Amino acid sequence: MSIPSSYPNPSPRLPSQPPTALHQNHLHQDYPYIPAIMNSYPYPSSFGFNTASVAIARERAGNRTRPEPRAPRPVQTDDRQSPYEAILLAPGENKIDVEVDTRMPSAAIFTFHKEDHTLANMIRTRLLRTPHVTFAAYRVPHPLTPNFQLRCQTDGEITPRQAVINACQALIKDLGILSREFTKEYELRKMANAANQQQNIGE
């Protein structure tokens, strides 16, 4: 026996006393499909109002529409910057921007683009050893941005711009000396190792 898809609404409030034969007859008249439900499911042969309520609730739950599945999450894109963006200047971007610091006399702020702590610390250290320089410091505005700001102050004998140029020229000379000394020591060590190998083979 098929169960009808539509059925009358249940009573507003079911009595709480145990069902009697009269109650069961009224229940059969109001819900004619309940006997079919009782026969199709492993319910007990004798049922009351509680059993009928469970059957009605299950029938209603089966007729409910299921919610639509959630849309798949969008694939996360890789937003990491290219390594070349940290060393190559953008079109129209200057390597160094100079800004006069009006809060201190004979002071200026130099913004170096596409550089990091390596160059900043070398220039700062060399500036502190340069004559007529009274203050030199740098800061990195953001750790993910390859820029740093160098603040330089002089005693007025030379401009901060000239002091930075002198420090960079002296730094280039120091790096040239370091490169020559390193190459010389490397070649001497390589020649000494080759001589030791020849001596070991002769023995």
Descriptive key words:
5 helices; 203 residues; Gyrase A, domain 2; 2 domains; 4-stranded antiparallel beta sheet; RBP11-like; RBP11; 4 strands; alpha+beta
What does this entry look like structurally?
With 203 residues, the protein is α+β, with helices and mostly antiparallel strands. The protein has two domains: 21-61, no CATH class; 86-202, RNA polymerase, RBP11-like subunit (Gyrase A, domain 2, 2-Layer Sandwich), CATH 3.30.1360.10. 43% of the residues lie in helices and 13% in strands. It has five helices and four strands, in the order H-H-H-E-E-H-E-E-H. The chain has helices at residues 21-30, 34-40, 49-63, 117-128, 160-202; strands at 96-100, 107-113, 133-139, 147-154. It has a four-stranded antiparallel beta sheet with strand order 1-2-4-3, covered by helices on one side. Helix 4 crosses helix 5 (160-202).
Uncertain runs? 11-17
Tell me the major beta sheet.
Answer: 4 strands, antiparallel
The second-level CATH architecture of the largest domain is 2-Layer Sandwich
CA radius of gyration is 44 Å
CATH uppermost class of the largest domain? Alpha Beta
Distance between the termini: 107 Å
SS field, number of helical segments: 5
Q: What is the fold's blueprint, element by element?
A:
Blueprint (H helix, E strand, L loop, with lengths): L20 H10 L3 H7 L8 H15 L32 E5 L6 E7 L3 H12 L4 E7 L7 E8 L5 H43 L1
Antiparallel strand pairs: 1-2, 2-4, 3-4
Helix pairs in contact: 4-5
